[in-house]
Amino acid sequence: MNGFPWLTLLVAWPVVGAAAVWLTAAARTRGVGPGALRAVRGIALGAALVEVALLVGAFTAFDTAASGTVQLAETYAWIPQIGASYAVGADGVALALVALAVVLVPLVVGAAWKEQEGDVRRLRHYLALVLLLEAFMVAVFVARDVFLFYVLFEAMLIPVYFMIGGFGVGARRRYAAVKFLLFSLAGGLIMLAAVIALYLHGPGGPQGFLTANLVEHLAANPMPVTTERLLFLGFFLAFAIKAPLFPVHTWLPDAAQHAPAGTSTLLVGVLDKVGTFGMLTLCLPLFPSASAWAAPVVIVLAVVSILYGALMAIGQSDLMRLIAYTSVSHFGFIVLGIFAFTTTSVAGSSLYMVNHGISTGALFLLAGFLVARHPERSQRLTDYGGLQKVVPVLAGTFLVAGLSALSLPGLSTFVSEIMVLLGTFTRSPWAALVAVLGVVLAALYVLLTYQKVFTGRTREGLEQLPDLGGREKWVVAPLIALLLVLGFYPAPALDLVDEPAEVTLSDLAPAGVEDPPRTDPFAPDPTPAAAADVAGVVDTSVSDTVPTTAEGSES
Asked: Under a CB-based contact definition with an 8 Å cutoff, are residues 507 and 284 in contact?
């Protein structure tokens, strides 16, 4: 252990908070009455805010100048018989994603203040699951043992399953929860087989599952080509389902449609980043040659996800499904940047994971506030209209969040998306050019949605809807502020992701992957013959002019 155990505290404290919510609320008037409601809300929000304070402490102990190295590390023997350890640590990308989770949770708690129809028994269970999920999310991002990562990867399914199936909306919420669980379990079982095979090819010993040990051992003792590719596919498929990447994305729209808004915020804004984070921190360093081998196909899938997700979003009539499909498109950008294998694109993807969580979190929470105001709790776009005159604050904040989804300059998502596109262009110009169409389609689905919901004549029965209240403004304000601040001054976030991107490219060096030089995309690419002609022209012009100048000077 190095220094104060900040990461262990960040993992353990939400579990303590979840237990306190369950036990204290049960003890207060047997779970009924206003006293129990205040206890549930106060304890959950207090626990989430203490977690934010612990995050600040972790950042003060983290050296941003060395963000590419694993810091705040702790390692303890866990299951020595199989070489598994409790090993945690964070580089810049991991700490940024931990920060995303820790910041979103108190906002989700605040947004759920009046959810579950005022039933304190349901609310205390729901908020306790939110805090438990926070512990799993923090733990999976800081896990530095592959077996520990796998256990946490699967454990996260439990609270999410109950948050969708037990506390969601609509008659098909249990179907959506089971579909989410089956897709995730299928990917997890394939990943388990790959983890076991990886251990058999690893260094063995008491810490045989440590990621750093595995990377070092596999670099010195390469696996057979076929074996490496199969293991890569085992990990990648699990991460592609979690991401979600086309064509294994179909669980997401159903889950988002039937989950509470806060659950969708954490699911899409944070939890799904485990997929792309796993690609970045496990697939690439452990299997560099297989990653380079698979990159052309993965890039095609990423481009398809960008366009498919955007087109499907345009055609949606349900607001929550629409936001889910926009995320399929955005995850395509993230995967594209990772497998373009340039420092600019990889850093852009790392930053995109954070910015997408902020942007999509704001959209889901605002959509939840909007649906809660409808007399029938409808999510259908056709049941709204003309609300910008009725709820101007809600309309304005929704517009800002929507513009962040289309990466408007001045908002944080623009920085990450332009980095992905520019970095990808130096490696694969065709992929970058096709991906740009996703930006155009994003403008369509955002502006068309705003037009249907907020402009035109106010729909009958919606003329007296209340605007955002004080609590709801406090929930949304931090997200809007982050979108603006990181849009105009992204340096603090870039400092966290730049050096890890360089480390990622160095991990790929054994596979012959190098960061391509930045060139003028409009300059001709001369052939050797053309270059020789250019050199000949220069030589001739010099030989013609020098003697003349010399003769003139002698005379």
From this structure: yes
Are 311 and 369 in contact by the 8 Å Cβ rule? The answer is no
Please spell the DSSP secondary structure of 201-250, one letter per residue: TS--STTTTBHHHHHHHHHHSPPPHHHHHHHHHHHHHHHHHHTT-TTS-T
Tell me, what amino acid is at 120? V
CA distance 468 to 369: 8
Helices assigned H by DSSP within 62-168: 92-111, 120-142, 146-155, 157-165
Helix ranges (H only) for 428-527 are 429-454, 470-488, 491-507
Name the helix (H) or strand (E) containing 300.
helix 288-314
Q: Which of 169, 210, 10 is nearest to 103 (CA)?
A: 10
Phi, psi of 72 (to 5 degrees): 55, 35
Mean pLDDT, each 10-residue run in order, the chain (555 residues)? 83 93 65 67 91 95 91 91 91 94 94 72 87 95 94 92 88 90 92 92 81 87 90 94 89 91 91 92 92 94 95 92 93 94 92 94 93 88 89 93 91 92 91 92 93 88 87 92 93 92 86 67 47 43 41 39
Q: How far is CA 317 from CA 314, 350, 362, 497, in A?
A: 9, 31, 20, 37
Calpha distance 497→423 (Å, rounded): 14
Angle between helices 251-258 and 319-339 (to 10 degrees): 140
CA-to-CA distance for 220 and 313, rounded, in angstroms? 47
Local structure of residue 380 (DSSP, 8 states)? B
CB 76 within 8 A of CB 113: no
118-121 contact pairs (CB < 8 A, 24+): 118/37, 120/25, 120/31, 120/32, 120/33, 120/36, 120/37, 120/40, 121/31, 121/32
pLDDT of residue 154: 92
Q: How many CB atoms lie within 10 A of CB 101?
A: 26
- Name the residue among 161, 222, 232, 225 with its Cα closest to residue 193: 232
Give the span between the Cα atoms of 291 and 225, in whole angstroms: 11
Answer whether 147's CB lies under 8 Å from 163's CB: no
State the pLDDT at residue 376.
86
Torsion of CA 215, 219, 225, 227, to 10 degrees: -40
Which is nearest to 155 in space by CA: 357, 269, 15, 55?
Answer: 15
- Residue 33 pLDDT: 57
| CA separation for the pair 422, 531 (Å, rounded) | 27
Q: Give the SS3 label for residue 78.
A: strand
Query: Which residues are paired to 380 by β-bridges?
Result: 318
Q: What is the DSSP string of 143-204?
A: B-BHHHHHHHHHHTHHHHHHHHHTT--STTHHHHHHHHHHHHHHHHHHHHHHHHHHHHTS--
